[in-house]
Amino acid sequence: MRHPIIIGLQYGDEGKGKITDILAEHAKWVIRFNGGNNAGHTIWIGGKKLVTHSVPSGVMYPGARNYIGPGCVVDPQSLRKEIEEISQAKGSPLGPEHLSVDYRAHLTLPVHIALDAMREKTANSIGTTKRGIGPTYVAKMDRYGVRAGDLGSSGIEDKVKALCDAYAPLLAAHKLPASTHEDNMAAVREAEWLQAYVTREEAPFYDVARNERCLLEGAQGALLDVDHGSYPFVTSSNTMSGSAASGAPFPLSRLGGVIGIAKAYVTRVGQGELATELNDATGERIRKNGGEFGATTGRPRRVGWLDLDELRTAVRLSDTRWIVLSKADVLSGEKEVFCRYQGKLVRFEGWANVVNGTSLDKNFEKYVEFIERAVGVAVTAVGTGADRSHLFWRKSQPDFWAD
Ligand code: IMP
User: Fold this and answer.
1) pTM for the full model?
2) 323: helix, coil or strand?
3) What is the pLDDT of residues 257-303, one digit of tens each?
4) I need a labelling partner for 316 at 20 to 30 A (CA). Which of 11, 117, 137, 160 fits?
5) What is the C-alpha to C-alpha distance for residues 91 and 93, in angstroms, rounded to an integer?
6) Which residues have a Cβ under 8 Å from the Cβ of 386 and sit 6 or more positions away?
7) Does the active-site annotation cover 361?
8) Active-site position among 3, 21, 41, 53
9) Is residue 223 within 6 Å of ligand 1 at its C-beta?
10) Do 133 and 116 form a contact (C-beta atoms < 8 A)?
11) What is the CA radius of gyration of the chain?
């Protein structure tokens, strides 16, 4: 058995949620390997909307165990809120038997959030989610980080003090109040509940991967990867499939194919280039029809035509095996649709409905075939509507866990 990795192939918000939900139902373990509460995943439970940020997508399935890996960062306060909301929606507590946090995951504390806000006020702002994600990874690399496994330890106070002292001059230079040792310690004390969820196994999936189905869930998208994305307008973690091995951590030889999710158009939140951006009525319409407003921040997302030059790079870098083309229905009713290919816009006739009867609309099929030729990978499924059942498999659904 090998275990699939789901990632976004654009700038996040590709609609990974739907396919993740479908597969999570069959998985024993759902593992997040990067990012923190900058991500936003909308789920509907009994007609009630719930937005999750840090927890993996298996939390709604009673049989699934969810793991937040060491490649992730965790804001304890935000995680607690999520756990409470999910428990309430499910009608049963989301306890440590369903959710584990690797002891090596770094904690996002008030000082990180203050630093993120500070940076966003400077000329070098990139439009972050202001959740303190970047500064948490910075402090990790700087060896000042505080980890989930430090909670309750005798040395934590010294670590928190060193962290606050290290970044105090930066806040002072911007004439901002210090994020004090006391305030950060208060947050750490408040986070002691998290200890019950912390696991300390060094290689948690080494044996598990032999006989229990796992699903590796990436956050954000390939083009926001700190190494391979559109730097500096990127997030601060590795969002590519390759980081599943270290961020989970997961045995390399047990990793399976990559399921890459791409929207039928493209959206981006925050600054950075968007070559196909639509600043007109068509862009407005797509934003509205697609509900393109940030799940985490509520910001309107920038909208553009699908960029096949970028998609091809993302597919290659992440070694994508199956593409799921999501939200194709959002473009239904457009007279004409465009793609960027080899630097130029290519025009396609629009479609009224993505699916006619039991097959894809002919114009839409042409669009899909062009995408496949341009990027060199098959589009396995197409998103045809908001509901979980609105997914059209072009052939039969592959066995994503096959060897
Ligand atoms: P950060 O991750 O908060 O540091 O933000 C860095 C960049 O990544 C900004 O452009 C954000 O808008 C973007 N970003 C981070 N997380 C997401 C996400 O889940 N969806 C879309 N964009 C994201």
Assistant:
1) 0.96
2) strand
3) 999 999 999 999 999 999 999 999 999 999 999 999 987 788 899 99
4) 137
5) 7
6) none
7) no
8) 41
9) no
10) yes
11) 21
